[in-house]
Structure formats: C-alpha cells, structure tokens
Design a protein that fits this description.
alpha+beta; 2 domains; 5-stranded antiparallel β-sheet; 9 helices; 5 strands; globular
C-alpha cells in the first residue's frame, strides 16, 4: 500500500469514526463547536472504533513485515507514535455515542466482523465478484451464495460449506461462524435447522465488500492477517 493509499485509509478512519460517534442521546447529529465542548467525552471506544484501530495496527505491521522481507528501511516506531497520537486526539474530540445495542443494525460494517468470519463470508460469496463472473466467460446470472451446514467432529461443532446443494469437504471451526449468527448475517433455513444461509443484511454486506474489492478500494480492511 502506497503513502497516498495509507493516508486515504487514515482519513476515512477519522471521518467514519466521527460520524459514528457524533450522534448524541437526544437523536441530534449536528452540533456546534460550543455545544460539542460541553458534551461528556466517550469513556471507552465503541466496537467500531476498536475495529478501526486494529486495521491501522494491521497496516503498520504489514508494512513493517514487507520492508523487512525486502531489506528496506521502515519507520515503524514513528508510525505507531502517529497512530497513538491520532487515537488520543480522537478520544478528546469524540462525544459519547448512542448505546451500541440501539445502533447495531445500522452500524454493521466489514470492520465489525472478526477476521476468520470475514474469510468465511468471502468463501461463501466469491460468486458475487464481477471478476469471478468474468473468469467464467463474461456476464451471466449471479450464482447464489454458498450455505453452511453444522455438524460435530470429535465432539466439537464445525461448519461445512455447501455449494449449490453439494456439501464440500472443506469446513471451518465454530469460532469462524458463531459471530455471523450473532450479528444476524446468516440464519437457519426454515425447513433445515442444520443448514444456514445469508440473511438479506448479510448478502447486502457481502455485495458491498465485493464491489469495493473488485474496484481495488485501498480502504478495504485486510484479509488473512490476524
């Protein structure tokens, strides 16, 4: 990721976080500087803020690893210091957020999803990618997302991928899937309690992810880095 891409990601982080936390308890979203100064500041970060902090940390670590691999210099200490200053300033400027339980449905974002769960969604919905459809020979009707089927193995719950009603040998641990259930992104089929499908909000989230991925959006959270 180049310097301009990194700056774009960091600007997006600041803007999105301030928008997420600018709503006060009476429902208003527009505050003057004087009004904002009188509002108690947030005492701890929201889940969205924490997720965005983790993404910045992953960016820093990734650049450090790449620089070490290629024998290049990298000011990792300076980047960490700037990120900490940015977080401190943001904490000083951010008013108390609405309780997250009231805003979860509207604030769900790719950032809110744990990394292993993101990988699961990507594997379920790779057919949403325009690049995948192009590789199959051009525009065609969208292939439905895969489903997940729960089973037990050695006393532990696991989930197998089901592609067009054919169960794959590939499976993932329950820790990769349970957050998707909790966030309302997948649900059991009406006539099959062991098989799960994307909800409307889950499909909408994944289509947005693939739209950004196909466009090489530099602000899209990293994959495969825990």
């Amino acid at each position: 990721m180049g310097r301009s891409d990194r700056q774009s990601r960091e600007r997006t982080f600041v803007i999105e976080t301030r928008l997420h936390c600018s709503t006060v308890r009476d429902g208003s979203t527009k505050l003057s500087m004087e009004e904002a100064s009188r509002i108690p500041k947030v005492s701890k970060p929201s889940s969205l803020m924490r997720a965005q902090f983790r993404e910045i940390a992953r960016d820093i670590i990734s650049r450090d690893r790449q620089a070490r691999k290629n024998g290049l210099s990298q000011n990792t200490i300076g980047e960490i210091e700037r990120a900490m200053v940015q977080a401190f300033v943001l904490g000083q400027e951010t008013p108390i957020c609405v309780p997250e339980s009231k805003t979860l449905a509207t604030t769900i974002d790719w950032l809110n999803i744990p990394l292993r769960s993101r990988d699961t969604l990507v594997h379920m919905t790779f057919s949403f990618s325009s690049r995948f459809l192009t590789a199959l020979g051009g525009p065609r009707e969208e292939i439905p997302a895969s489903q997940l089927e729960v089973f037990e193995e050695s006393g532990r719950k696991r989930w197998a991928f089901v592609h067009q009603n054919v169960r794959s040998e590939r499976s993932v641990a329950d820790g990769s899937v349970s957050p998707l259930v909790r966030l309302g992104l997948i649900r059991p089929l009406p006539n099959n309690e062991v098989r799960y499908e994307l909800t409307e909000s889950g499909a909408r989230l994944c289509r947005e992810y693939w739209r950004r991925s196909d466009a090489d959006d530099p602000t899209l959270p990293r994959q495969g880095m825990r």
